[in-house]
């Protein structure tokens, strides 16, 4: 089997994502290392921040709080690893950019409706961002020229893979499984459209 087929198979079977990342993205990312590492660092910061927000908002949900508390530490640890990598390479942590990918996902989030529906969307957005990040890290870990960075990204890929399933599990803890599955399918379809609309840019993770 060709590596491309294997990747797209993985993307669908493991992560459920509908659209594999354009293979040209890795080459572009490698050419703008300071930008991609900066963007990656902020992705980790946002992952930590959104877990903190979920804990604040749903403090009465014991399982959610217990599951997400250590993820905050882990994501912040990821931020520190990326920061150290920038510094080691004498590159600078740049400014945080407008995150078009996340903003487009947020525009699909249920704003009104039931409290249950809002919780479901918040958890599924996190699951989706983890899944796509995992897929992008996988691409980097397989195709970067730099062997050190390939290994660096393999470790991130492994840890984000566990996060995406955790958010789905949490959704299924509080909401009927059939509802979760149905809404997850809507999200996967919507996300594929977002990825398509953003085009291929080497200075961003998504
Ligand atoms: Fe992370
Ligand atoms: Fe994560």
UniProtKB/TrEMBL annotation:
<dbReference type="Pfam" id="PF06175">
    <property type="entry name" value="MiaE"/>
</dbReference>
<dbReference type="InterPro" id="IPR010386">
    <property type="entry name" value="tRNA-Hydrxlase_MiaE"/>
</dbReference>
<dbReference type="GO" id="GO:0045301">
    <property type="term" value="F:tRNA 2-(methylsulfanyl)-N(6)-isopentenyladenosine(37) hydroxylase activity"/>
</dbReference>
<dbReference type="InterPro" id="IPR009078">
    <property type="entry name" value="Ferritin-like_SF"/>
</dbReference>
<dbReference type="InterPro" id="IPR012347">
    <property type="entry name" value="Ferritin-like"/>
</dbReference>
<protein>
    <submittedName>
        <fullName>tRNA-(Ms[2]io[6]A)-hydroxylase</fullName>
    </submittedName>
</protein>
<dbReference type="GO" id="GO:0006400">
    <property type="term" value="P:tRNA modification"/>
</dbReference>
